[in-house]
Structure formats: structure tokens, C-alpha cells
Amino acid sequence: MISEKKDIRALSKEELRSFFESIGDKAFRGSQVYEWLWSKGSHSFDEMTNLSKETRAHLNENFVINHIKVDTLQKSSDGTIKNAVKLHDNLVVESVLIPTKKRTTACVSSQVGCSLDCTFCATARLKRMRNLNPDEIYDQVVAIDKESRLYHDKPLSNIVFMGMGEPLMNYKNVLESIDKITSDEGLGMSPKRITVSTSGVPKMIKKLADDEVKFHLAVSLHSAIQETREQIMPFAKNFTLTDLRESLEYWYNKTKRKITYEYIVWKDINDKRVDIEALVTFCKYVPCKVNIIEYNPIDDGHFQQAPSRAIDDYIEALERDRIPVTVRRSRGKDIDAACGQLANKQ
Ligand code: SAH
Fold it and tell me: Can you give the pTM of this predicted structure?
């Protein structure tokens, strides 16, 4: 049953302080409750032992504490873990823990489904149901951190917003979740360890720069030719490469932080010399690095990973112009946890 009471974690610290004042109590009670909710991760008001019984009863009458619930947990043979996460209204999103020697990364979702329509992505086939709230994003990180400590004996080191959804189409909540993740009252993680990945929403990239965010930005480019990009990412008709370029220049001028371009090379789509040259040219506009991602098939084979020779050609051309390039191997493919495979199959 969905409760009619308000989710207390939707209130900011200031709002909590005002709430206590409004009921004739002291504002600092609001700060106490905030600490219980965020740094201590309380699931019930009864745990809040420094509040009086009456106060706790009052909170119980007026609010709920919604937490996500890890419904199923799947483990890949390569150590990757995928969580299917149930939300308070029974919708489900997925998040992934990706362990490597040096780091453990949480890949979190920002929307149920996705606002955009990338033709090669399984998530895009689920229509966008709703945006996640800041606490629902935060809870995914907390759950992965616990699993990292439990199964890999170390805390989470990095977070990428590369799960389901387009983070910049849920701008406010994503930024609020990052505030909580980075604040000392939350998880106290450094924003330098967080990367937000966007399909490229120019207006919102500029807004990130204006808001002086401290995390990293990755852009799913996949083609530097407008016509090709529109074919694989139809929304790009409205968010053109020219506008994208301008927004990235704006971002760099304000933040002085390099952009990462995510790039998949498909057979017969973007594996030709013109595609490579267009990417090299695009990479010269703003300091950047390129992350070539392995394609994870999601369907009948309409899209196919280009042969490794094509990828070598990309690498050679980029390196010739001193543009840093890495190739990202897929992780967790056997449990549909790799990039673009998150589609709530369970
Ligand atoms: N909407 C955001 C974040 C989610 S997708 C974005 O587009 O950046 C995370 C990354 O996975 C993106 O780079 C996306 O292009 C890529 N991706 C989507 N489908 C994929 C697939 N089938 N195989 C490999 N990568 C895929």
C-alpha cells in the first residue's frame, strides 16, 4: 500500500528545522532528525533515541521514512553485482557494483525507464515512468557500498550515473543526491570520484557549469556526424552537435575540467574513415578523453560491434593527435548488468 503520509527524507535540513519550530519545539531537533535520517541511515523513528516518545509518535503520525529495498541481487562470474531495487511505489530500477583491482564503482540509475530514445539501449525501450527522488538515488549508493564491504572487503570508491535514465532530465534530484553523497552528514565522498554521464543535453550542461558542480562529466557521443548521430539517437535532432559543442566549450571555460566521450563503434554505422576523422575533429574543440565502450547486444542483431581492426584505427588516429583514449571492456554481461542492458528483465 502506498502511504499518504509525507516522506520525511524529501525535506531539507532547513525544512526539518522549520517543521520543529512550527510545532513549538526547538529547531535543533530538526538537525538531530536529519542526522538520524542521513548519516545514520535510520529506517524508523523509534531508533531516534535522543527524541522524546511524544516527538517520535508525532513524527510517526505525520511522516514515513521510505527506503529502497534490494529485491534481487545477481552476481556475475566476474564479480559484478546487479541489484534490482524496489521503490516505495513498487516500481523497480537497477544498480550495479563493478569491482576492479584499483576501485569499486557503483553504477546508479536516475530515472525509472528513460526520457530519451537511443535505439541501441535496452533501457530506452522502457518508457520513462518517473524521476527518482534524491533519497532513492542516495539509497542505491548506500546499498552498493554495503555490498562492496561485504563481498569485496572495501568501501565503494567511485560512482557513475550510467544506470537507467538520463541524469540531466532529472537535474534537480540528481544534484540533490550528489549533495547528500558528498556532504559530511551523508557519505562524505569526494565529488572527484563521481561521474555524471549524459546523452548530451546542451542547456543542462551549461546549467551544470553555472551551478559550479565539482563532479566529472561524460557525454555519450557515439558519432561526431550529425546525420549518423540522429539515426542512432533520434533525440539528437533537437540537441544538435553544434549546440552540444557550444555547451561543452562553455563547461570547459567555467570548470577547466576535461570531458570524457563515451563511444561505441558499430559495424557499418560508424566504422569508416569519415567517422574517425569527424571524432578527431570534435575532440579538438574541448580538452577531452575518449572511452571506447564495447557494445553489449540487446536484440536481434541490428547493431553489431565493429571488428577490432576498426577500433584499432580509432585508437591510432586519436593517439596520433594526442587525444587520450581507453577501451572499456564490458562487465557483468552474463547477468545483463553491462552498459545499456539494464531493462528490469527479472
Ligand atoms: N543516459 C545517460 C546514462 C545512461 S547510459 C547517457 O546516455 O550517457 C550509460 C552508457 O551506456 C552510455 O554511454 C550509453 O550510450 C551506453 N550504452 C547504452 N546502450 C548500450 C549498449 N547496448 N552497449 C554498450 N553501451 C551502451
Answer: 0.93
Query: Tell me: the pLDDT tens digits for 132-187?
Result: 999 999 999 999 999 999 999 999 999 999 999 999 999 999 999 999 999 988 89
94 assigned to active site: yes
Instruction: Locate the domains of the chain by residue range.
Output: 6-64, 69-335
Q: Does ligand 1 come within 6 angstroms of the Cβ of 264? A: yes
Tell me if 159 CB under 6 Å of ligand 1: no
Query: Which atom of ligand 1 lies closest to the CA of 114?
Result: 1
| Pairing state between β 259-264 and 158-161 | unpaired
6-64, which class in CATH? Answer: mainly alpha
Are 195 and 168 contacting, i.e. CB atoms less than 8 angstroms apart? no
Which CATH code for domain 69-335? 3.20.20.70
In the DSSP assignment, the letter for residue 329 is: P
Band of pLDDT at residue 346, cut at 50, 70 and 90: low
- Model confidence pLDDT, tens digit, residues 178-237: 999 999 888 999 999 999 999 999 999 999 999 999 999 999 999 999 999 999 999 999
Contacts 24+ apart (CB under 8 A), 148-155: 148/97, 148/99, 148/104, 148/106, 151/75, 151/79, 151/81, 151/97, 152/79, 152/99, 152/104, 154/104, 155/104
* Ligand 1 within 6 A of CB of 228: no
Most ligand 1 atoms within 8 A of CB, residue of 105, 162, 289 to mutate:
162
- Ligand 1 centroid–CA 211 distance in Å is 25
Ligand 1 in reach of 296 Cβ (< 6 A): yes
